[in-house]
Structures are given as structure tokens and as C-alpha cells.
Design a protein that fits this description.
Elements (H helix, E strand, L loop, with lengths): L2 E5 L2 E4 L4 E8 L8 E6 L6 E6 L6 E3 L7 E6 L4 E6 L8 E9 L9 E4 L3 E6 L1
Parallel strand pairs: 2-11
Antiparallel strand pairs: 1-3, 3-8, 4-5, 4-9, 5-6, 7-8, 9-10, 9-11
Length: about 120
């Protein structure tokens, strides 16, 4: 069993930055692909980024490529999402997810989810 707890969300002006963290408990973190998803008001949950077990391979949604960076520290059981050049359309609840089967871009393939952290970007 893996429990995921996100932190780092908040209110920021457009063009600003935030760093989200996802702390995982459980022994399977270091062997799990990890991902970030988000769900904006009135929208479906969408893929943001994912990272391989070693951290050597990363995946991004086109909408965040070049602005967001996903990373992980297996010694700390933590995955991060550095978000730069934030835009109002990035406003959403951001969720950490782990242990995917199948495509890293499909939410239903992940076994574990955090409770989410709110990110609000003002214009």
C-alpha cells in the first residue's frame, strides 16, 4: 500500500512559480512510475507529467512542456513538480499518482492517488 500526500500549492500571480511536492509512504515508491495530474473547474482530470522509476525518463503534456519540470528523490520517497511561467489556465487541483499500468498519460491506470493540492494563478 502506498499513501501519497501533496503539498506546495497556493495562490500565485501569472508568470510566477510554485514547487509541488508529493511525499510517499510505503516500500514500493522507488519501484513505481509517478505522475502528476490536474483538474480545473468544470474540467476532467488531465495528465501533466510523469517520471520513470530511475528518473531518467520524463513525460509532459504539451500544455506544460518547457514550463514544468518533474523530478524525484527516491531516497526521500518524494516526487516534485516545479512549475514556472504559470498561467491562469494552470489553475487546478493538482494530484500526485503512482504505480501505473499502461500509458503514463491515462489516469485510470494509476493505482494510488493523493488528496490533491490547489494551485490558483491570478491574472
Amino acid at each position: 500500500q502506498v499513501q501519497l500526500v501533496e503539498s506546495g500549492g497556493g495562490l500565485v500571480q501569472a508568470g510566477g512559480s510554485l514547487r509541488l511536492s508529493c511525499a510517499a509512504s510505503g516500500r514500493t515508491f522507488s519501484s513505481s512510475v509517478m505522475g502528476w495530474f490536474r483538474q480545473g473547474p468544470g474540467k476532467e482530470r488531465e495528465f501533466v507529467a510523469a517520471i520513470s522509476v530511475s528518473g531518467g525518463i520524463t513525460y509532459y503534456a504539451d500544455s506544460v512542456k518547457g514550463r514544468f519540470t518533474i523530478s524525484r528523490d527516491n531516497a526521500k520517497n518524494t516526487v516534485y513538480l516545479q512549475m514556472n511561467s504559470l498561467k491562469p489556465e494552470d489553475t487546478a487541483v493538482y494530484y500526485c499518482a503512482g504505480a501505473v499500468r499502461g500509458s503514463v498519460r491515462i489516469a485510470s491506470g494509476y493505482n494510488y492517488w493523493g488528496q490533491g493540492t490547489q494551485v490558483t494563478v491570478s491574472s
